[in-house]
Specification:
The protein is an alpha/beta fold. Helices cover about 30% and strands about 20% of the residues.
Length: about 260
């Protein structure tokens, strides 16, 4: 007789922000002792489930390891309020700041961050803008290496706004509303432990650009390159390895003081 798989408790709710955004979220809570909270930030055009339910699987594995995991939709993405064309790097940075603030208000003081692609860049810049100690450690997957490096100018012939592809179009403000301190400068100043994971088949330029400033970054750090892996770790072999390394990192570096 087949058995039904059991998962840690998963709660869907909405986080309301001071700037009147309503961010859809899911909190995964371990059944036993909670070691800390990991906040997951999705990529460009993604959502709190991510490609192939990557974030769902990751959050469940984190919960099995004793960590609460919070995945949420940025403003204009997934089930959150707003429209995608209204988002910019700074709106997402503000969203993540508000989610971290919400977590502290709920009593979480042992917080780690995990960001994928554009969400990785947002995670890096956010961590550099909040007070020291607000988060303890960070993992980024296939992070956009610089907001200046990536999508720096509007397309000459943007895709037609059709029902088949409505969410991929950004507004004009997207190209000008950039953080004052870009990803490289933010990354190198962060003092807490940092892990960057990406495949050697990542988007062209991502690994090369990140590798330029990684050597001068402060503190404990690791750059793990997975042979054969693509930008979102599509194959199960790569995905399983990346998730396992991520859980291991948080188990080592996100400990209650």
């Amino acid at each position: 007789m087949a058995t039904t798989p059991t998962f840690p408790d998963e709660h869907s709710f909405t986080i309301s922000t001071p700037d009147k955004h309503h961010l859809a979220a899911v909190l995964h809570v371990p059944k036993k002792t909670v070691k800390g909270l990991v906040i997951l930030s999705h990529g460009f055009t993604g959502n709190k489930g991510e490609s192939g339910r990557l974030f769902v699987t990751t959050a469940r594995e984190l919960a099995k390891a004793g960590f609460a995991a919070l995945r949420f939709d940025f403003w204009g993405s997934g089930d959150s309020s707003g429209e995608f064309y209204q988002m910019t790097p700074n709106t997402e940075i503000n969203d993540l700041k508000n989610v971290i603030r919400w977590a502290h208000q709920q009593g979480w003081d042992n917080i780690g961050l995990l960001g994928l692609s554009f969400g990785g860049a947002v995670t890096i810049c956010t961590a550099a803008q909040i007070p020291d100690g607000a988060v303890r450690t960070m993992v980024t997957w296939s992070s956009v290496p610089s907001f200046q490096f990536w999508r720096s100018k509007p397309e000459i012939n943007p895709p037609a706004f059709t029902s088949e592809n409505p969410i991929h179009i950004v507004g004009k403000k997207f190209f000008t509303d950039r953080p004052k301190i870009d990803v490289p400068e933010s990354y190198v100043r962060l003092p807490f432990p940092k892990l960057q994971i990406q495949g050697d088949k990542d988007i062209e330029g991502f690994r090369e650009e990140f590798s330029k400033y990684f050597p001068v970054a402060r503190g404990i750090k690791k750059h793990l390159v997975v042979p054969g892996a693509d930008h979102v770790f599509t194959t199960w072999k790569h995905r399983k390895h990346v998730i396992a390394q991520t859980v291991k990192w948080f188990s080592q570096h996100l400990k209650a003081r």
